[in-house]
Amino acid sequence: MEFDYVIAGAGSAGCVLANRLSASGATVAVIEAGGSDRHPWIHIPAGYAKILDHPRLTWGYRTAPDEGTAMRALDYPRGKVWGGCSSINGLGHVRGHPSDYDLWAQKGCTGWGWDDLLPYFRRHESFAGGGEGRGAEGPQPVEHLAEVPELLTHLGRAAAAIGLPVLADMNGPEREGFAPFQQTRRGRRRVSAARAYLVPALRRPNLTLLDNALALRVVVEDGRAAGIAIRRDGAEQVIRARREVVLAAGAIGSPQLLMLSGFGPGAALQAMGIPMLRDMPGIGANLQDHYIIRLGFRLGARRLSANHRIAGWRLPLEALRWAAKGDGVLTWSPGMFSLFARTAPGLEAPDIQINGGPLSWAPLPPEPGRRFGGIRIGVPEAEPGMTLGVWQCRPESRGSVTLASPDPAAAPMIAPRYLATEGDRACVLRGLRLARRWMAAAPLRGIVAGETRPGPAAESDAELLDFARETGGTVYHPCGTVRMGGDPTAPLDAALRLRGVAGLRVADASAFPDIPVCNINATVLSLAEKAADLILSAGRG
Asked: What residue stretches are annotated with the Glucose-methanol-choline oxidoreductase C-terminal domain (predicted)?
């Protein structure tokens, strides 16, 4: 089978590329390891809590134990389905701070500054609220919350009381402050990248989707990427590309596929018995992610929390409300609001993001030898409560993705190395104390009745860091593992081309030089939109 373009991965980036490249009239094949997105929990916004560890819809990855996580191995959900992580995430649609992308440009990523990327943010979105700099005609619907909980009004007043603005549009010109979340949703349903981009494009005869197909390696002939070898229905074949091969398998899948193909740290590849085509230590390095620490608070009134609305016999009532009215708890995200703040002098952008909602989860007892226990996400507490998730926006820590086996079906080794620097630990402490100061503000007296996690007994820096290490987890934002840059150690150039081989690009979150200050899906969509332009321009040239 031969096509003009062969794309590995039908996640957020791959869906954009499939649509835009096939719209040009070129023949396009998309290779996806997962299957269709028909599972009902995908399309119900709150269904994310049911599918993050689904054995068919996710890869089932776990991280390597590390000091930053108190030697815990963490679940590391990655979508294995049409739409990839956009089909299992929390629906958050958040643009980065303009300085995020200007910093990319300063690192040699010419054409990736904020002014360069803003047209692509506008191109991909259709925002029902309108406003300065927002897109109105893109494929990806973006909406305000279908139900705005009463608690958000009180939280906004408390944010103002501690000196932070309250924003009507979290993706507008001003980013620092408190705002309700925006979701990749239309009405009652999630709209993943598969639904926004891929499914409509599948009507075109020049687009072929090969799902339930495992990519084995990039086939290179005479120094040029000639296609991708796959295994499907037990048989192996090569899907050949006349023009380009584009990897869009994500921050874990793209470096893994490159290493399986002979591109990566040479000694490690040779030790695995993989013929080395090009020694590129930067492939699999530079892994960045946001590390979230969840605080719990008791609310003073039952009506302010949704705990009682999803417990026992009341959950079916919410399902009826969702079906009949298109709102209610089943339209909620894990983050119903977000607060961005600078917690140190001299910063050009927020260094802390706090997300949350008026739900709190049943506690889990501490494991032996640890002081703090976790929570059972999806199982509400009996008493009214809320959860705040605190994370550092621009972590200094860098991890890696490496091969654990030369078997393409084996999971790679994922080592995020959270909290590895003193700067990261200090920032997280500032974030936790900011959350507490926010909850203690005068407008929340009588609204917030007390802290339940970790509780007032955890006050010292050492105690709070123990809490962060023993209970924190990923926010599902891995990126940077095949970074672009102007320096020769960057695997990709500013056109997303892999150095040293023709006809091969990487166009997904792995190409980020640095993580944006926020949830990353909107940036992935914008990167893929720009990548499609770069690819089509090269094809015309």
From this structure: 395-528
Checking 420-425 for CB contacts under 8 A at 24+ apart, the result is: 420/67, 420/68, 420/396, 421/396, 421/397, 423/396, 424/392, 424/395, 424/396, 424/397, 425/465
- Identify the helix (H) or strand (E) that includes residue 528: helix 521-540
Task: Decide: 491 and 482 in contact? Cβ < 8 Å.
Answer: yes
238 and 219 Cβ atoms separated by less than 8 Å: yes
Helix (H) or strand (E) holding 122: helix 114-124
Asked whether the predicted pLDDT for residue 336 surpasses 90, the reply is yes
Rounded distance between C-alpha atoms, residue 112 and residue 94, angstroms: 18
pLDDT digits (tens, 9 = 90+) for 265-318: 999 999 999 999 999 999 999 999 999 999 999 999 999 999 999 988 899 999
Task: Say what the pLDDT of residue 343 is.
Answer: 98
**pLDDT score of 541 more than 80:** no
Residue 194: which pLDDT band, with cuts at 50, 70 and 90? very high
Q: Any idea of the CA torsion for 493, 82, 127, 514, to the nearest 10 degrees?
A: -30
290 included as an active-site residue: no
Question: 244: which residues sit within 8 A by CB, 6+ positions away?
Answer: 4, 5, 6, 225, 503, 504, 505, 535, 538, 539
Q: How far, in Å, CA of 261 to CA of 256, rounded?
A: 9
Q: For 314-330, what is each residue's pLDDT tens digit?
A: 999 999 999 999 999 99
Burial 474-500 (b: 16+ CB within 10 A, else e): bbbbbbbbbbbbeeeebbbbbbbbbbe
Angle between helices 521-540 and 12-23 (to 10 degrees): 30
Query: What's the one-letter identity of residue 206?
Result: N
Q: Are strands 28-31 and 207-210 parallel, antiparallel or unpaired?
A: parallel
Strand partners, 245: 6, 504
Alpha-carbon dihedral angle through residues 197, 227, 117, 253, given to the nearest 10 degrees: 80
Measured CA angle at 42 (ends 321, 82), to 5 deg: 155
Distance in angstroms (rounded) separating the CA atoms of residues 266 and 295: 43
pTM of the model: 0.98
For helices 422-439 and 151-161, give the axis angle rounded to 10 degrees.
Answer: 110
Q: Please identify which of the residues 39, 54, 290, 477 carries the catalytic annotation.
A: 477
For 403-451, give the DSSP string.
-S-S-TTSPPEEE--TT-SHHHHHHHHHHHHHHHHHHTSGGGBTTEEEE
Residue whose C-alpha is closest to residue 166's, from 438, 451, 514: 438
d(CA 16, CA 437): 41
100-116 average pLDDT score: 98
Any idea what DSSP says for residue 374? Answer: -
Locus of tokens 């996690």:
453
Look up residue 194 and give its two tokens: 């598969």
Percent of the chain's residues with pLDDT above 90: 96
Q: How confident is the model at residue 540 (pLDDT cuts 50, 70, 90)?
A: confident
Q: What pLDDT is stored for residue 401 in this prediction?
A: 98
3-state secondary structure of 67: helix
Judged by phi (left if over 0) then psi (alpha if -120 to 50, else beta), residue 496 lies in left
